[in-house]
Write a structure and sequence with these properties.
The chain is α/β, with parallel strands linked by helices and 423 residues long. It folds into three domains: 93 residues, no CATH class; 180 residues, Rossmann fold; 53 residues, Arc Repressor Mutant, subunit A (Orthogonal Bundle). The chain contains 15 helices and 14 strands. It has a nine-stranded mixed β-sheet, with helices on both faces. A three-stranded antiparallel β-sheet has the order 12-14-13. Strand 7, helix 10 and strand 8 form a beta-alpha-beta unit. Helix 1 packs parallel to helix 3 and helix 6 runs parallel beside helix 7.
């Protein structure tokens, strides 16, 4: 981009102009880049924008200087630094993706982006086995001096963050820094900031919507050397993250699961399609070690072509009469075989935030893979006597099987736990 050479820092006024341009309706990452390159800077692009809108029959309002100053002031109260692509503090790997955010709001310890990052994502309604696997992988990556990156969602994301608090983790938000989702993870976010970082490209005050979660997902993969999918249903936001990772040249890893558990259907499909099957952090590091320290990796990402099933993540302005190249006028899209409901493990806020009963939570945690009763007690946070009573009820109903060593699993006749998925 032309506003400043790579590695230099914007002036305060340039940063405000970048914020104004990026916050103006219809200016997505590609249009922003094209305008900066065409006019030489954000201030010049802002001056030309009213004429461009008028010549294309569009009615639009450019974000004012005072509005940008207000957002900067609100961000400062939260400790947010707005870092432009090309500045030294902008994450190097993220800068290489085609749809990199022009301006990224960062708070916390910025030096975490100088270490290799690996994403761990998966189901919100994860099984106990999946949660334990997420913890184990996150702890192992921390021992290997890697930063764990995830999306602060319930389930797999939250457990991956918690297991890497002492070694460094990065949370990517779908909303503004002052609109944490889910709200229950606000305390977790504060803990992340002590040794890690939180990032968002969205404006301060922005409540996350369904389409904002796929936007978040491409940042999760863009910050990472590789992406690990622990559990994912057949149609889930985690699979969208995996697709972005593949298009961005990242390695995709998948933890296999039981064919009887619908939460493993997506991960098993990924393995059939070529994702690397993993069962330990050693499997991940064996694939990533050759990439560490390489300045020529990853290559500039080329996100795939659109098709009839794509849905726009940005309604980018079209400047045909201005002679803009075709690539700058395309919608940036996410591909889906069919619509995904904004529910558990999908691409939006949970459909319902009601607390589960202990029995419902236990049923959700159980899968065909055996898990220890002690682990179930820890994950539910309930007294051992209550958990043991409910497990007995489930056993009498034929819904669980007991194994040696104090292990239990969902019974084979039960085709997976009842979950609020994308179905």
């Amino acid at each position: 981009m032309s506003d400043q050479p790579l590695g230099h820092t914007l002036t305060e006024r340039q940063r405000l102009d970048w914020l104004r341009l990026s916050r103006t309706e219809g200016i997505g990452p590609r249009t922003f880049r094209t305008l900066i390159n065409r006019y030489g800077g954000a201030a010049e692009a802002l001056a030309a924008l009213p004429g461009l809108l008028s010549s294309n029959g569009r009615i639009g309002r450019v974000v004012s200087l005072s509005e940008a100053e207000d957002e900067m002031a609100i961000g400062a109260r939260y400790g947010v630094r707005f870092v432009a692509m090309g500045e030294p503090d902008y994450p190097r790997l993220l800068r290489g993706i085609e749809s990199a955010p022009p301006l990224l709001g960062i708070r916390g310890v910025g030096s975490v982006f100088q270490r290799p990052g690996v994403a761990i994502v998966g189901s919100r309604n994860a099984s106990a086995t999946g949660l334990k696997m997420a913890e184990t992988l996150a702890e192992g990556l921390g021992r290997e001096h890697c930063v764990v990156i995830s999306g602060l969602a319930r389930g797999i994301d939250s457990y991956a963050h918690r297991a890497s608090l002492t070694t460094g983790t990065v949370a990517v938000l779908a909303g503004g820094h002052d609109k944490i989702y889910p709200a229950e993870n606000a305390e977790l976010l504060d803990a992340i900031l002590e040794k890690g970082a939180v990032v968002s490209e969205m404006p301060m005050g922005w409540e996350p919507r369904g389409r904002d979660f796929p936007r978040r997902n491409r940042i999760i993969s863009g910050l990472s050397l590789g992406v690990i999918i622990v559990e994912a249903a057949a149609r889930s936001g985690s699979l969208i993250t995996a697709r972005f990772a593949g298009e961005q040249g990242r390695d995709v890893f998948a933890v296999p699961g039981s064919p009887l558990d619908p939460r493993a259907e997506g991960t098993n499909d990924l393995i059939r399609e070529g994702a690397t099957l993993i069962g330990s952090v050693e499997h991940v590091m064996a694939a990533l070690l050759p990439l560490l320290g390489r300045d020529d990796w990853p290559p500039i990402a080329q996100e795939g072509p659109a098709n009839q099933d794509d849905e726009p993540l940005w309604d980018e302005l079209e400047f045909e009469s201005a002679g803009f190249e075709e690539s700058s006028r395309r919608y940036w899209l996410v591909r889906r075989k069919r619509p995904v409901a904004t529910g558990d493990d999908g691409d939006g806020p949970d459909a319902a935030d009601n607390a589960l009963t202990t029995k419902e939570r236990l049923t959700q945690l159980l899968s065909p893979s055996p898990i220890s009763v002690d682990t179930l007690i820890r994950l539910t946070g309930q007294p051992a006597s209550a958990v043991l009573t409910i497990l007995l009820e489930l056993e009498l109903d034929g819904l669980i099987e007991r194994h040696g060593g104090g292990l239990v699993s969902a019974a084979p006749v039960h085709k997976g736990p009842t979950i609020n998925s994308e179905l």
